[in-house]
Amino acid sequence: MADPTVDGERFRRRFDEFSDIGATENGGVNRPSLSDENKAARDTVVEWFREAGLAVTVDEMGNIFGRRAGANPDADPVLFGSHVDSQYNGGRYDGVVGVLGALEAVEALNDADVTTDRPLEVVAWSNEEGVRFQPDMLGSGVFCDQFDLEYAYEREDKDGKRFGEELERIGYKGDAPCEPRDLHCYFEMHVEQGPFLEQEGLPVAAVEGVFGFSWMNVTFEGQANHAGPTPMDMRHDAFVATADVTRSVRRLTATEGTDLVGTVGSVDVWPNAINVIPETVEFTVDFRSYDDAVVDAAVEQIQREIAHAAEREGLEYEFEEIMRVDADPFDQSCIDTVVDAAETVGCEYTRLVSGAGHDANYLNKIAPTSMIFVPSVDGISHRESEFTEWEDIVTGTEVLLEAVRSKAAE
Ligand SMILES: [Zn+2]
């Protein structure tokens, strides 16, 4: 029996064809969740899954599963995949490499006529990006019992269209229950979305876990007044305080020896006029680290900085932490399996922690989980210019194949 081999050219042909679905002028794709383009991408996934001999089921959330029988039909399956929805004018690689890479791994097993002990299941999750319907990772979130199905169906896009109705419109409201079931483990290959692998010149990383984070809303309340006659020492400028806090966020992240990252990403200013002193500013702060204590300390510190900035400028303020998620270490056995797979493939690799959330986070709550990262050139993602060298995707897929085979033999 021949060893299963990834066919980089077949995979490439499929990837290029897939990239035509919702293609944008600048080389990206526009396939937001439950759009007509997302339906076309789903149709293609289903067609290709079936061509590869997979038994396709669609669940109530529109998650698409393709099952390949194992020698032991009652064993818990090894699940692997990612998502095919995109950002508005997003990149071709985000999510897609994980789904089509999973399919290619199945094709390699088919070519070599290998039957694994455990059944294998390939998956394309619904609504990972959270750009049209919030929150993100909604399909895997319901599957892993983090959200109710009804809550998911009621999510609305900016035009008031509901997730449940749009899912039905594109024909992907399936019958299979979307709920946790017994899985042997879950793997997801994904583009890194950061610069590390490319900087190090490495093709793959075994992902050890995902950063924890805190999201905060802050409001400064000052006094609007004319930008001309109001003396500088009589101002209560909500935006000056916001700028001070933004600078403090940057300073905190520069603390030596921590992996803390921090962002002020959303700022609303009232009245937002050229000749009026800003009266009210609402803004957000996002802190992330793999060390929960580091996030806690940053949240405490930034609260002090907010109080100081308000005092200096003579403002009222409100502070609220709206979301706090602890760091999420993946399963050690699955991480080791990815590392061993990289050794077997004979490629260079490293271990990484992810700064971004993935469907794998939710899967990690119900099954042993790890991820495989492949490089993002210039660390760019969620943009049309997102790019990964094809040979790295092939290497990542070889590692995925090995990891799946080894877990399917347990
Ligand atoms: Zn993604």
How would you sum up this structure, described in words?
β1 and β2 form a beta hairpin. It is built from 12 helices and 14 strands. Helices cover about 35% and strands about 20% of the residues. α10 crosses α12. The mean pLDDT is about 95. The radius of gyration is 23 Å and the shape is elongated. It folds into 2 domains: about 290 residues, Zn peptidases (Aminopeptidase, 3-Layer(aba) Sandwich); about 110 residues, Alpha-Beta Plaits. The protein has about 400 residues and is α/β, with parallel strands linked by helices. Strands 1, 2, 3, 4, 5, 6, 12, 13 and 14 form a 9-stranded mixed sheet that branches. Strands 7, 8, 9, 10 and 11 form a 5-stranded antiparallel sheet that branches. Zinc ion binds next to loops.
At a glance:
36% of the residues lie in helices and 21% in strands. The protein is α/β, with parallel strands linked by helices and 410 residues long.
